[in-house]
Amino acid sequence: MHPRHVLPLLLLLSLGGCSKAGGDGSNGETVTLLNVSYDPTRELYEDFNAAFAKHWEASQGRKLTVQQSHGGSGKQARAVIDGLEADVVTLALAYDVDMLHDKANLLPTDWQTRLPNNSAPYTSTIVFVVRKGNPKNIRDWDDLTRDGVSVITPNPKTSGGARWNYLAAWGYALRKPGGTEDSARAFVSRLFKNVPVLDSGARGSTTTFAERGLGDVLIAWENEALLLTHEVGKERFDIVAPSVSILAEPPVALVDRNADKRGTRAVAEAYLRYLYSDEGQEIAARHHYRPRSQTVAAKHAQDFPAVTLFTIDEAFGGWRKAQKAHFDDGGEFDRFSVAQAR
Amino acid sequence: MSTSARRRILPGFGLSLGMTWAWLGLLVIVPLSGLVFQSLNLSWERFWETVASPRAFAAYRLSFGASLAAALINAVFGLLVAWVLVRYRFPGRAWVDALVDLPFALPTAVAGLTLTTLYASHGVYGRYLEALGLKVAFTPLGVAIALTFIGLPFVVRTVQPVLEDLDPEVEEAATTLGATPWQTFSRVVFPHVLPALLSGFTLAFARALGEYGSIVFISGNMPMRTEIVPLLIVTRLEQYDYAGATALALVMLVTSFTLLLTVNLLQRWSQRRLESRPG
Q1: Which of A155, A204, A227, A337 has the fewest CB atoms within 10 Å, i.e. is most exposed?
Q2: Domain with B249 in it: what CATH number?
Q3: d(CA A5, nearest CA chain B) in Å
Q4: What is the ipTM of this complex?
Q5: Which pTM value belongs to this model?
Q6: Containing domain of residue B79, as a range?
Q7: Residues 6 or more apart from A331 whose CB is under 8 A from it?
Q8: Digit-coded pLDDT (tens) for B156-189
Q9: How large is the average pLDDT for residues B21-36?
């Protein structure tokens, strides 16, 4: 290259190198918080943010704005790893929060013990949505492996929510009398034989089932299922609760490094704690998440039928182990889905 | 074009070339070398395991195959559309012209959702196609159709200006000299538009290779059957396997670059052949 050509190149490169974004967001009267969340919590946090801002202003006399960002859980976690300055994260699975520690050391490794209930202030479970009147007579997990039953569930490789669906089925098979890892593998692999399409996200599957009329049963989070039947079509769909399912615990966490940098630790901690208050629990229940508080749960008992629930720690020894054994490359899901396709 | 480098009419060649390098460097070379560096985190065995698995090969086959099919279809029908738009005046022509660009403007996810709804077994097209025993949504055929939709504007928009430059008198001359309509097309019109057609084909092909947003809806993402390479890359990212994701991306990048370079050389060759022809 001629020297004359090099100069502008260097100039541009150095320009790119020295510009750096600044600002800590806590100047003046108004404090801002950024809550990076996953897809189906949009409406929940719209309500909760307004409620908390009011509570904060009343008790501290400072104005607060909470910004929220939504997307697939894994994608959101990667954005935070790559530098999105979230003060708190509220994601679909603990594995995604673990990675904030592993990949970028944004919070301590024991983050999940810092708040009550595994840092999951609200829970959900995995249920079935069937066509009105339940024409295929689907009652429990076993019916999903029958010939001629078409099952819709998203791809557990791309969707965090779908991993709960998959683990619920696996855990059910394990807990059946005489259930072993082998029988569970056979059960889940037979179930996935009945899956004609693997949408990349949970809302995609809901569209496939509800709008395109594909499939006899949709495996879904209870809050999504309730949203679908309450707001889209009570006369088109029924919810069937299986006998046994998984306790889905979407965790919340303070992102220490970002909160300390922005000077928002106190308000961010208060924000997360408020999720456990009666008002926070009530808002969660209104948005079809199961509240942890017994009193609030009792008020919404008709929405949440009794299901025997097992946790991921009980059945799989936690998310890290489950992720590695089932969903990482060459894991259980890859092995049987590739074998099936051949 | 080819002569302007030697006879510089405008001053500032050095500056503009420097700017070009800087611009491409910032925009293309630096990010892409980041990709190469990321994949260097992998051992050779792990790299090979990632990019040469049967599942990856199934995805390469679908991605390259469907993109090629879509680009070929677009080359044929894009030429036809461009021809009609340039050579004929008909009511609604401005509308047709605007319609061509629509696939550009539409968010790809919207395109994907719409096409899937159309071609799914209850959809407007799907219902009849299924009766004929043809499944489109959630099959490789559906992927090819979505990619054809996405790539439509490229061929039309590259060929159109060239056709506009081609004086109808040239065709008339050919006819008066005794050429049949087929001879006029194959010996006069086609060689003239071939370089532009190749550009359009390349653009449509390259665009199709990278497409993700619309395809994840219509493909159904079934392992070994309807997984495109970009989906495999996303699944790697979902496991926080950044190095594995970049390894696959690197394979796509190198293959695409080789293909694009080949087509570009081919295009220059056909351009030169056109210019060296007498008359």
Answers
A1: A227
A2: 1.10.3720.10
A3: 4
A4: 0.75
A5: 0.82
A6: 39-276
A7: A324, A325
A8: 999 999 999 988 888 889 989 998 989 998 988 9
A9: 88
